[in-house]
Every structure is written in C-alpha cells, then in structure tokens.
C-alpha cells in the first residue's frame, strides 16, 4: 500500500500535468499566429522568386544595381553570388510580421524586388480587368469611339501620364491615337520599375473602359 507521502507527490504531479496541459491547449489563444509579410504578398497574387527563376532575377538585378542607395543594406546587386544574396535578403524581409512598424515600406520593397515580375497588363489580369484594345483600328485614320471619349476626358484632367503631358493639336482621331499608343506602352511597364504603382493607377483611369473597370 503506497504511503501518504507517495500519494501526495503523485497528486501534485497530476495537478501540475493538468495545469500544464491547460496552458498548452490555450497557447494558440494566448499567442495567436501572426501573418508574415510573405503571406500578405502571396495573398495579393504575387509569387516569390526562387532559385529556379534565374532569368527573372537577372532582370530585376539589372534595375536594382542602379539604385542609390541600395534597397537592401550591404547588397549592391553586383556581387559574385548576387542571386543567392537577393533571395536571402528577400527571405529575411518576408519573415517579418504584419504588425511591423515599417510594414508598408517593406511590402513595397518585397513586391518590387522579391517576386516574379509582372507587367501592368498582368496586374490588371490578376483582378479580372481588361484594358481597351490598343491595336490599330481597321481604318488607320478613324479611332474607336471609346478612345475618342477617353481622350476628351484626358485633355481636361490633371492626372496625366508623365510621358504624355499634353495631346497637343490635331484632330480628335489623332489625339485619341496618341493616348491609345501611350496606353499600349504603359501596359508593358514592369513591377520592378519605380513608377509601377502610379502607372497602374493611371492605366486603370485612361486605358480601361468604365464598364470593364466596374466589372
């Protein structure tokens, strides 16, 4: 028959185990999992670079190494192991949590330098937005009415493409062609370009019909 002291010890261990088990069960509630910046970027329909994306990394680094100061500390983009260093910097930044005080700055950096590049047109497709056709009309002198309507709104706007500050003089068709051609170029701007987000917003304004944007 066990002694009273043995029973007390066993009881104490049992109580401690119960308490410990209770803490373990409640831990997810006391310390809920926080989203990382990586999860936020992926939720926004971007895919992170990996070692198999050598051509995309080269494309990004061609722009990265011209930046002054360098976006990532202690990484100029021209080192011998530059591909691996970029992936390492991106991994480190992507593991920060969403409540970081510099969240917005870090997200912009990740979407510019750490993901498979997208064009403005790709980004529109992510959200099921289709731009107006930028192909030449069947008649070389007659622009589609949708472009003429956009052109008239564009002329009176203060939010123009920096490369097309004015449509100058000319017929409505000539001016509509200038806007259509500008949109065709802007749709190809890549995500590692500094003006990408601004360009995307202006493309939505001037290169997409209201009906398509609404859908």
UniProtKB/TrEMBL annotation:
Spans annotated as Disordered:
127-146
Which named protein is this?
A: Uncharacterized protein
């Amino acid at each position: 028959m066990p002694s009273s002291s043995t029973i007390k010890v066993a009881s104490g261990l049992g109580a401690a185990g119960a308490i410990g088990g209770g803490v373990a069960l409640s831990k997810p509630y006391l310390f809920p999992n926080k989203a990382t910046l990586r999860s936020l970027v992926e939720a926004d329909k971007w895919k992170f670079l990996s070692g198999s994306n050598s051509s995309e990394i080269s494309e990004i680094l061609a722009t990265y190494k011209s930046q002054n100061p360098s976006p990532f500390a202690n990484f100029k983009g021209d080192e011998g192991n530059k591909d691996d260093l970029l992936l390492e910097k991106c991994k480190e930044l992507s593991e920060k949590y969403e409540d970081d005080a510099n969240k917005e700055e870090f997200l912009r950096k990740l979407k510019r330098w750490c993901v498979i590049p997208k064009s403005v047109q790709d980004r529109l497709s992510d959200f099921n937005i289709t731009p107006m056709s930028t192909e030449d009309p069947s008649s070389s002198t007659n622009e589609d009415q949708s472009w003429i309507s956009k052109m008239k709104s564009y002329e009176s706007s203060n939010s123009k493409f920096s490369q097309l500050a004015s449509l100058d003089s000319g017929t409505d068709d000539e001016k509509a062609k200038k806007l259509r051609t500008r949109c065709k170029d802007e749709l190809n701007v890549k995500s590692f370009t500094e003006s990408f987000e601004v360009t995307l917003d202006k493309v939505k304004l001037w290169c997409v019909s209201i009906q398509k944007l609404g859908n």
